[in-house]
Every structure is written in structure tokens, then in C-alpha cells.
Design a protein that fits this description.
Elements (H helix, E strand, L loop, with lengths): L1 H9 L9 H17 L2 H11 L3 H7 L3 H27 L5 H4 L1 H9 L13 H42 L3 H5 L4 H20 L6 H14 L20 E4 L7 E4 L17 H6 L18 H15 L7 H9 L3 H18 L3 H31 L24 H31 L1
Antiparallel strand pairs: 1-2
Protein name: Avr9/Cf-9 rapidly elicited protein 137
Pfam families: DUF3475 (PF11961), DUF668 (PF05003)
InterPro entries: DUF3475, DUF668
Length: about 425
């Protein structure tokens, strides 16, 4: 009796529990990829993003090249999501989900056909809606747990404070409202646990993601990328199904062709090491020189200076100057020595600088914003559940020509300096009168 009970217990499907949050992040990433393949998003990519002035001037005008970058990055994101799905699949009772990495490999190689996959079908849209509801409640659970942790920390401090207080002091205090707030917060956490991914089984959650992953395979008519090659070896394995009739799926590939070089390397440094698109930027690019985020921050500070309603102080300008590498400092000093004195008393030249700055920043600033946003979206340390289509590296400064980018930054900073000197001189003259 005891053996039978133990056996029955071991066959009960496990629930995600604390892994709900990682699962929600992966679901969000898959939905983001899925939506990025819509006709609207592809049209936006080709007509707006790739033809924007900054991308065309700093990165490339070659549509085929830019499309190949977009395709490769999306495939990498898909591989990373599939890696997590495969790891979660190892905890499933469904054998087909246990072997998800082999199915994924065969599907990428075009060896097996898992059925007619219609992008945007009602059936898939319903699954996406279900996943979005689960993501929303899981996000709410995460926020509720954080709020509860803060309240419980306050409760511990309160208990410590009570120990050091006299009884007569405690009689005058009413803690009912505080304890009621904690009780309500714990009840909210229990409710969200029941409706979120926390209480979902591995089989149901992984099954949803596996199906959406099939629908997210990048479409060849939109993108062109190098075909991956792998030696194929026949292998068979049983797969359980919800249908009454048993089925058999053949796993042809001996190992996965996910971009991760090690099957169990799911850490942040593992992803960074295997990010081929990120490391494809050559030494003549901003990203290849390791300066993308640094230059993006310089540009964004310059933008804040342009739109500041108050005079920028010396310390703020010095801080911006210290953000620059030595070659840019030297270039700025050289250019300022040639043109700075002319602008001091010439209003027409000052107006010309304003127009030039406005024009340059019009296409340079969006590149900086996209660079920071790309970094934020891929910060694996943060818990994010956003399923909107994400930024692409081709929109950022990562693949930008280093020489052109630095020339633009020098122009902007020299222009700001000249305008500052002109405005400062004019303000001084007005005070004299």
C-alpha cells in the first residue's frame, strides 16, 4: 500500500512554484518574438527602422545586410528562449517535452514537420492571450511578494522595538491597522499564487511555450541568413500524447544546435559568450570597440544640455568632458581653438550652430536611446515581463561606423560649447548695461 502510494505520488505533475518568474520572462520573450513577425512589424522594420537617417548613415544602407542582422538576432533570442524551455521540459512528465531540445533541432533543420503552422491563426492567438493572462498575474504576484517582503521587514523591526519598550508605552499604541495590512497582503499573495504560473504544471506551461516557439520560427521570405549545418543521425523515442492513440515521433538529431555552446550553460555569462550577433561587430565599429553604451550616455547627456531651461554649470560640463576617451578630448580642444572665438560675438554663427545641432541630434539621439533600451531589455538580472517587440542591435550604435559616430559627437559637443560661450557672453553684456 505504501509503495503504491509513493508511486502514485511520484507521478503527480509538479508545479512551477518559484520557477514561475523565469517561465513568465521566457513567455514574454516568445510573445515578443511572435509579434515581431507580424506584417505590421516587418513593414515597420523595413520601411522605417532600416531607412531611418541614423541607421542609414552610421550603420548601413544595405537592406540585405540589415535584414540578415535582424534575422540572426531574432534566431539567437529564439534559441535562448528554447534553451530555457528545454531545461523546464526536463521536469515534465510528457516525454515529448523532455526531449524538446531534439525536436527543436529537427524543426530548425527542416527534418520534421510538426503540422500546418499558420501564423496569426485564432487557435494560436487564444494561446497567446492565455499566456498573457498568466504573465500578468505572475507579474502581479512578483510585485505582491516584494511588497510583502517590505511589510514583513517592518514587522520584524516592530517586534524588536516592542521588546525594548515599556508596557505602558505599548498600551497607548494601536497596531491593528498595520497587522491588517500585512494580513491583506498575504491574502493577495495567496490569490495570485493560485491564478498565476506558480500553480501551473510544468507540462501545461512548457507545452504552451513549445507550441508558440514553433510559430515563432523566423520566416525566410522576410529574412536571409546563413543555413546551419549539422550531421544528422537517426534516433527514435516514444512520445506521450493526450489523444487515446499512442504515437511515435522520431528524433533525428543527436544533439541540439542551439547557439549555447554548453547544453547546461544558462547563466548570464553563458549567454554573453554565445551571443554571436553582438560579437560580430568589427573593430571599426562603436560596439566592436566597446564604446556603444558609453557614447550613448554622452549623447543623452548632450541632449539634456540642449533642452535644459537653466544654464549648465562648470561641474556638469566637466563631468561630460570626462566621459570622453582621449582621442575625442583632443579633437574637441583642437576644433574649439579654431572656431570658438568667432562665435563669441556673432549671432548669425550661433544660429547656424543651433540649426546644425538640431539636425545632427535629430538622427543621433534616437540611436543613443535605442542603445540604452537594448541594454535594458537584455539585462538578465532584472525581472521584466514585457511582451512588446524589443529593440534590435541594428537600431543601436553597436554596428555604427566608429569614425562617423565620433565625428558627430565632436560636432555636437563643440556646438554646445560655442553656444554656451555665446549665451554666457550675451548674458554678461546684458548685466553690464
Amino acid at each position: 500500500m505504501g509503495v503504491r502510494s509513493l508511486s502514485a505520488e511520484s507521478k503527480k505533475p509538479n508545479h512551477l512554484g518559484i520557477l514561475a518568474f523565469e517561465t513568465a520572462k521566457t513567455m514574454s520573450r516568445l510573445i515578443s518574438l511572435y509579434r515581431s513577425l507580424s506584417d505590421e512589424e516587418i513593414s515597420k522594420l523595413r520601411k522605417d527602422v532600416m531607412k531611418s537617417e541614423g541607421v542609414a548613415y552610421l550603420n548601413s544602407k544595405d537592406e540585405a545586410f540589415l535584414l540578415s542582422l535582424a534575422c540572426a538576432e531574432k534566431l539567437e533570442d529564439l534559441d535562448k528562449a528554447a534553451t530555457t524551455v528545454a531545461r523546464l521540459g526536463n521536469k515534465c512528465t510528457d516525454v515529448s517535452l523532455n526531449k524538446f531540445n531534439h525536436v527543436y533541432t529537427d524543426f530548425k533543420l527542416g527534418i520534421i514537420d510538426l503540422g500546418k503552422l499558420e501564423y496569426g491563426s485564432k487557435k494560436i492567438d487564444k494561446k497567446v492571450e492565455k499566456m498573457e493572462r498568466l504573465i500578468l498575474t505572475t507579474s502581479s504576484l512578483y510585485e505582491s511578494l516584494e511588497a510583502l517582503a517590505e511589510l514583513e521587514a517592518s514587522e520584524r523591526k516592530l517586534m524588536q522595538w516592542k521588546k525594548n519598550c515599556r508596557a505602558i508605552q505599548l498600551e497607548k499604541m494601536n497596531f491593528d491597522l498595520f497587522y491588517q495590512k500585512i494580513a491583506n497582503q498575504r491574502k493577495q499573495v495567496r490569490n495570485f499564487r493560485g491564478t498565476s504560473l506558480w500553480s501551473q504544471t510544468f507540462d501545461k506551461s512548457v507545452g504552451l511555450m513549445a507550441r508558440l516557439r514553433e510559430m515563432t520560427q523566423v520566416q525566410p521570405e522576410f529574412f536571409h541568413t546563413e543555413q546551419l549545418k549539422e550531421q544528422v543521425c537517426s534516433r527514435s523515442g516514444p512520445v506521450t500524447s493526450t489523444s487515446s492513440k499512442p504515437i511515435l515521433v522520431r528524433f533525428y538529431s543527436r544533439k541540439s544546435i542551439m547557439f549555447l555552446s554548453e547544453a547546461n550553460d544558462y547563466r548570464a555569462e553563458g549567454f554573453e559568450k554565445n551571443n554571436r550577433v553582438f560579437h560580430a561587430a568589427g573593430p571599426s565599429t562603436v560596439g566592436g570597440s566597446g564604446l556603444a553604451l558609453r557614447y550613448a550616455n554622452v549623447i543623452l547627456v548632450a541632449e539634456s544640455f540642449m533642452h535644459s531651461a537653466v544654464t549648465i554649470g562648470h561641474d556638469a560640463r566637466e563631468s561630460l568632458y570626462e566621459m570622453l576617451p582621449q582621442n575625442l578630448k583632443k579633437a574637441i580642444r583642437s576644433k574649439l581653438s579654431k572656431c570658438g572665438k568667432i562665435v563669441d560675438d556673432d549671432e548669425s554663427l550661433a544660429d547656424g550652430w543651433r540649426e546644425a545641432l538640431s539636425a545632427i541630434m535629430g538622427w543621433l539621439t534616437p540611436m543613443a536611446h535605442h542603445t540604452v533600451q537594448w541594454q535594458t531589455e537584455r539585462n538578465v538580472e532584472k525581472m521584466k515581463f514585457d511582451s512588446k517587440p524589443s529593440e534590435l542591435l541594428l537600431q543601436t550604435l553597436h554596428f555604427s561606423d566608429k569614425e562617423k559616430t565620433e565625428a558627430a559627437i565632436v560636432e555636437v559637443l563643440v556646438g554646445l560649447s560655442c553656444l554656451y560661450r555665446y549665451e554666457n557672453r550675451r548674458s554678461y553684456d546684458s548685466r553690464r548695461w
